[in-house]
Design a protein that fits this description.
It is found in: Cell membrane. By secondary structure, the chain is α/β, with parallel strands linked by helices. The protein contains 23 helices and 10 strands. The strands form 2 sheets. It has a 6-stranded mixed β-sheet with strand order 6-7-8-3-9-10, sandwiched between helices. It has a 4-stranded antiparallel β-sheet with strand order 2-1-4-5, covered by helices on one side. The two termini are 48 Å apart.
Length: 607
């Protein structure tokens, strides 16, 4: 069986020279335009080549009016045909060079644009990987996906659609001013009307456009969250016949998006109309003015120069109209840049930089007077917990819902920090350790195993660099998964589907155990690892867990007390406090809280 899917993709990506992620300090939500320019500035050489190629390829745009005016004057004056042909040859050369220079421009500029998009996505993903678990408790997966996919796409789209018309308008303005200064310098003040008019229109609409785009983005993010929740709740919705309720809830969000989008469309329509009318009116004024001064003799202007001036002003106003019509795209891109900046500026980071790197873990844990209170909570989720877990020991945590079991596990994993007290790992305060290096020696088997859309082999070897077939096979055997994997038509090259949808709960859990085994961890955390399984599947998984736990420091959270009878010690939690500690038989004999929980579960089973 050969490796496939994600692992092969990972190797291919490692061989590629991916653009380095943009530093977060280059992106400032208060100055989105400056942030974009900073990102573009990281590829100055390509930008310079692109700008040179654009300048050369656009020469026909501003020089053809000169040729047109010259030919008209030759015809009006009865000049020679050879002179017309010379002008024609010059036009042909100028037009022919457009193609190669346009390709050079496209290659270099789009490399910059796509590279900027890649840098933004890499920066977002890198920052998201460093954010605390608390951030993800507050944010939906759909919202995070929208930031990485949609917002970066809007920035790329803005750069693609705005840059060409903007540079073109600048080139036309430069060419028009230059040629007019040579041919009819008295007409230069007329051009001064177009730029201020365009700037006034842009400034007038900018503030309203920003607020409408921000409202639209917020509504879209809310709607994306609602759609994500709807998709995840489909089984519950279908089981309880709540399709109409779910549809109505999402339809309400869609209507909010519709209203925000319509208001934005109306604003954009007004911008487009005002821009077009203003620029066309200026163009007509320029033509009439050139004709009047020529007819009255106020300025000596030939018919060809009248056409030249009118054409230049028409090109200029057309370019400015295009730029103004791109105000919606610009505003959307700038708003998306602010959205990206929100994530990159998120301060809720898991601080690991500069802390001590851990190369080896023995698995000796010491919890010293640890308390934890969640934000905006009135009481402690855990209060003054003292506990020592020796290397290789299995300690189980039991208690009713809300007693603090999962919180304690999250504290040891470093997902949340103690409000007071400290946790020592092998004698070192975990607050001073780089937890990323600690977790290399840790494996977690959660209640619901998390599998991605890939093959079984990819899922088991996820994150490992080219694990051998023998290593994968051994993990599958020890996890009691080899038999069902071998029976599949494609073996471990079988694609499991999104979240492992093509496998049973017991099969998914055994693959999660195989994923833990293949890493040979020193510490193992089991969070309700068998609670969602039927008795037959539970027995198979429990047998695999016994092999997984052997010789490793293991912390187990369990509701089913039958799954933790063989734990070295059982810690009973009640309302965030440790009320009992001991082995299964000892706690039953003591007749305390554990005995009460055990009797209740035994009663439920007998009933």
């Amino acid at each position: 069986m050969r490796p496939a899917g994600v692992n092969r993709y990972d190797r291919r990506m490692r061989r590629k020279a991916l653009p380095p992620p943009a530093d977060a300090d280059r992106v400032d939500g208060a100055r989105p335009v400056r942030s974009i320019l900073r990102l573009l500035g990281t590829q100055r050489r390509r930008l310079a080549v692109a700008l040179y190629a654009f300048t050369v390829k656009e020469i026909p745009l501003w020089f053809l009016p000169v040729i047109t005016g010259a030919v008209i004057d030759i015809v009006a004056d009865g000049g020679a045909v050879t002179t017309v042909l010379l002008w024609f040859a010059l036009a042909a050369v100028l037009l022919a060079q457009n193609y190669p220079h346009h390709i050079v421009y496209t290659r270099n500029f789009m490399t910059v644009v796509r590279g900027t998009g890649a840098r933004l996505r890499n920066a977002l993903v890198e920052h998201l990987q460093g954010l605390s678990i608390g951030y993800y408790a507050r944010s939906s997966a759909a919202l995070v996906q929208s930031k990485v996919v949609r917002d970066v796409e809007n920035v790329e789209l803005m750069l693609q659609q705005v840059t060409h018309p903007l540079l073109s308008a600048v080139m036309v303005l430069a060419g028009a001013v230059t040629m007019t200064a040579i041919k009819v310098p008295e007409f230069l003040p007329v051009y001064a009307l177009a730029i201020p008019t365009a700037l006034v229109i842009r400034r007038t609409m900018a503030k309203r456009s920003r607020s409408r785009n921000e409202l639209f983005r917020r509504e879209m993010e809310t709607f994306a969250t609602q759609v994500g929740e709807m998709a995840s709740l489909i089984p519950v919705t279908r089981a309880h016949g709540l399709e109409r309720t779910a549809t109505t809830r999402v339809a309400s969000g869609a209507d909010d998006v519709r209203r925000a989008a319509f208001d934005l469309d109306m604003l954009n329509g007004r911008v487009a109309s005002v821009s077009w009318v203003a620029m066309q009116f200026l163009g007509v004024c320029c033509l009439v003015l050139a004709a009047v001064v020529s007819l009255t003799g106020f300025i000596v202007i030939s018919p060809g120069e009248v056409v030249l001036l009118s054409t230049y002003f028409g090109l200029l106003t057309q370019g400015l109209t295009q730029v103004l019509n791109l105000v919606p795209v610009t505003a959307r891109g700038v708003e998306s840049m602010r959205s990206i900046a929100e994530v990159l500026a998120e301060p809720d980071l898991e601080a690991n930089e500069g802390k001590r790197v851990v190369d080896h873990v023995e698995g000796h844990l010491r919890i010293e007077h640890v308390s934890h209170r969640y934000p905006e909570s009135e009481g402690d989720a855990l209060h003054a917990v003292d506990l020592e877990v020796r290397p290789g020991e299995t300690v189980a945590f039991v208690g009713s819902s809300g007693s603090g079991k999962s919180t304690l596990l999250n504290l040891v994993l470093g997902f949340v920090r103690p409000t007071s007290g400290r946790i020592l790992l092998d004698g070192q305060d975990m607050a001073g350790l780089d937890l990323r290096t600690v977790r290399r020696s840790v494996s977690v088997v959660p209640q619901e195993s998390v599998l991605f859309e890939g093959t079984i082999r990819d899922n088991v070897g996820y994150g490992l660099e080219d694990p051998s077939d023998e290593r994968i096979a051994a993990a599958l055997r020890d996890a009691n998964a080899w038999e069902f994997v071998s029976a599949l038509p494609a073996g471990w090259d079988t694609v499991v589907g999104q979240r492992g949808a093509r496998l049973s709960g017991g099969q998914r859990q055994r693959l999660a155990i195989a994923r833990a085994l293949v890493r040979d961890p020193r510490m193992l955390f089991l969070d309700e690892a068998t609670s969602a399984l039927d008795p037959e599947a539970e027995a198979t998984v429990r047998d695999a867990l016994d092999r997984l736990m052997r010789g490793r420091t293991t912390l187990v959270v369990a509701h089913r007390l039958s799954t933790i009878r063989r734990a070295d010690r059982i810690v009973v939690l009640d309302r965030g406090r440790v009320v009992e500690v001991g082995a299964h038989a000892e706690l039953l004999a003591a007749g305390g809280r554990y005995a009460t929980l055990h009797a209740a579960q035994e009663g439920d089973l007998s009933a």
